[in-house]
Amino acid sequence: VQTLLEANHEVIATRKLKTPIPRGWRRSVRVVPLDLCKGESVRKAVDSEPDAIVHLAAVSYSRDAYDDPGFAWNVNAAGTVRLLAAVKDLREKTGSDPLVIVASSAEIYGEGDGKPRVEAETPRPLNLYGASKLAAEIAAAQGRDEWNLRVIVVRPFPATGPGYQENRVLNKWITDLRAGREAIEGDPTIVRDFMDVRDAVRGYEALLTRGHAGETYNLATGQPVTFGNLFALLVSKLGKDARLVPPAHPRRDARHLVGDPRKIQQHTGWHPTIPLKNTISDLIDDRALSDAQAH
Q1: Given CA atoms 109, 115, 117, 121 in this order, what sign does their dihedral have?
Q2: Which of 13, 28, 139, 190 could make a disulfide contact with 80, Cβ separation 3.0–4.6 Å?
Q3: CA 279 to CA 274: how far, in whole Å?
């Protein structure tokens, strides 16, 4: 939101009922309630006639999807259908034709052969969350092909950094390390593609202004990092002595998940710019500041 405001965009943000409004939004952002499970709520949010919609709302954590599968499918898949149907109705009523960016997930790829994943390969999600996001992509394709909507699908790979609490693995590791725990759950051999959340935000902005409607894009760095190396960065920064131990309840996830970013780079000129070690350092500093302010 802040990045869009700094670029002189007028921003309308949605939130669930009873969700607190961030302090920095109150004067500069119009906030409207949204329940993706209710068609009328979605239609009212879309009636503001935006030029573009960045659809990020979701059950965005695989464990939450596993705990309530029906709700995850209702939000991630059916909620996307409701949004696109509301955009279609808006266009028929007013002529407005907003660009819709549908945020999918790298989880739709499933297990691969150890190479960076490309947008053209066949998705094979391994878990319920990934399957529900693939269903959202199918809804986006239907909206594009049958209703002629201007839709872009983006497959973001994991992001982290200051102000971003969605990556529960890193935030849990930081909490455990600061609490003095010496044995912390995690598989050091898992490989992921982590980007700074500030780079991810710039990627979405690039798609808004230079992305091609009808296309699907990875939002990734293309740089692999093991959980073991990621954990070592945290341990070094925090000055702790700890090790990773096998998780008691391992999730059904791909062991190697790295994205090929060449398509988004070629179409928009976007490139990640913040080194991972800087991201980790800024994340830890931000967590310390937030915790101090909370007390």
Answers
A1: negative
A2: 139
A3: 7
Q: Which tokens hold the place of 106?
A: 């790298």
**Separation CA 194–CA 141 (nearest Å):** 27
Report d(CA 83, CA 125) in Å as an integer. 23
CA–CA distances in Å: residue 204 to residues 73, 159, 285: 24, 13, 25
Amino acid occupying residue 26:
R
> Which residue type occupies 22?
P
Cβ proximity of 186 and 251 under 8 Å: no
Model's pTM, two decimal places? Answer: 0.93
To which H or E segment does residue 143 belong?
Answer: helix 128-147
Tell me the CB-side half-sphere exposure of residue 48, using CA atoms within 13 A.
Answer: 18
Render pLDDT for 128-149 as a digit per residue (tens, 0 to 9).
Answer: 999 999 999 999 999 999 999 9
pLDDT in tens, 211-256: 999 999 999 999 999 999 999 999 999 999 999 999 888 888 899 9
Give Cα 126 to chain centroid, integer Å: 18
Q: Which amino acid is residue 109, in one-letter code? A: Y
